[in-house]
Specification:
317 residues; alpha/beta; 4-stranded parallel β-sheet; 3-stranded mixed β-sheet
């Protein structure tokens, strides 16, 4: 699998290793087999091989003999300014997805689960300058590029399940959690207005992907858009208040306010959040009932927050 040291891939590793009846062994692809993370995987009984998403031939060698491949690309991977100037992120991610698709075909992989997202551009047609486009003419390139790459797997006739994901519970640890305002109060500012966001925990993603791999006949050729539940900003703030033992107030940025923040890729992130918020209750966007049918043992956001309360408190101690 690609991304075994990340949230999605790591959760799949956990799911396979935790299931004594799993028919699979795990082969993890890494650019550096001598890294600490790679050595930790080896210690857990995972086969680790060196491969790079920028090197199609290395991927084909790593995929050889595999029943399935979980393919994850990372638009947000740390890059230097020079690297971004030489090859913009949207170009890099598309090329990496294409490399993985071609390598899977070359290696004869029987089932690829491709972690993808929607093309947000049709949703924003007619929005004019209120939803600005960014690099490559995309509205949210971290969505749109993956959606564009879906066609490569289809054109190459790679047996693929396209997996679309919502917010991870873990995004609270990635800059989306509450912060203290100048008065010292905890404020949650995720820009979803009064809409709902669809969420799921990383571990449930891993369990779901494992189950998809166990039943390829049911899922090859399908697009599976998964989520565990809907959560409002107010509801999330209440859960956090109880967990950290301190009032958390929901005061969302507007989407234009978020776009204007002096942070990297603020426009793209805001557009992606607006897309998810405005489409959050569309069943075709994230099908909660279908997810529950596939993976009945889903962890609620409230339960996850309770489990991680100490770490959440430490964020703003």
């Amino acid at each position: 699998m690609v991304g075994a040291t990340g949230k999605q891939g790591g959760a799949l590793v956990d799911a396979v290793l935790a299931d004594p009846d799993s028919p699979f062994v795990v082969r993890a692809l890494t650019r550096n087999s001598d890294s600490r993370a790679a050595k930790e995987l080896v210690a857990r009984g995972v086969e680790v091989v060196e491969a790079d998403l920028d090197d199609e031939s290395s991927l084909a060698r790593a995929f050889a003999g595999a029943h399935g491949a979980f393919v994850v690309t990372d638009f947000w991977a740390p890059l230097s300014a020079e690297q971004e100037a030489a090859r913009p992120r949207h170009v890099r991610e598309f090329e990496q997805a294409a490399n993985a698709a071609r390598a899977a075909r070359t290696a004869g992989v029987g089932h690829v689960v491709w972690s993808t997202l929607e093309d947000t551009r049709p949703h924003f047609e007619g929005a004019g300058d209120t939803v600005p486009r960014v690099e490559g003419g995309y509205t949210a390139p971290h969505f749109d590029v993956k959606a564009s790459a879906d066609a490569i797997f289809a054109e190459l006739q790679v047996p693929t399940t396209c997996l679309r994901l919502p917010f991870f519970h873990e995004t609270l640890f990635l800059g989306m959690g509450p912060v203290r305002n100048p008065q010292g109060e905890l404020v949650l500012s995720i820009p979803i207005a009064d809409r709902k966001m669809v969420v799921i925990g990383a571990q449930d993603i891993g369990r779901t992907v494992h189950l998809i791999f166990k039943a390829p006949g049911d899922w090859i050729g399908e697009t599976v858009a998964i989520a565990a539940e809907h959560v409002t900003g107010e509801g999330l703030a209440e859960m956090l208040s109880e967990a950290v033992g301190e009032k958390v107030t929901y005061q969302p940025y507007s989407w234009p306010e978020f776009r204007a923040l002096p942070i990297p890729h603020a426009v793209a992130v805001s557009n992606g959040l607006q897309f998810l918020a405005e489409r959050s209750e569309a069943a075709e966007l994230r099908d909660i009932e279908r997810t529950r049918d596939l993976t009945p043992r889903l962890e609620s956001y409230e339960a996850w927050i309770r489990k991680n309360r100490d770490a959440l408190r430490a964020l703003n101690a």
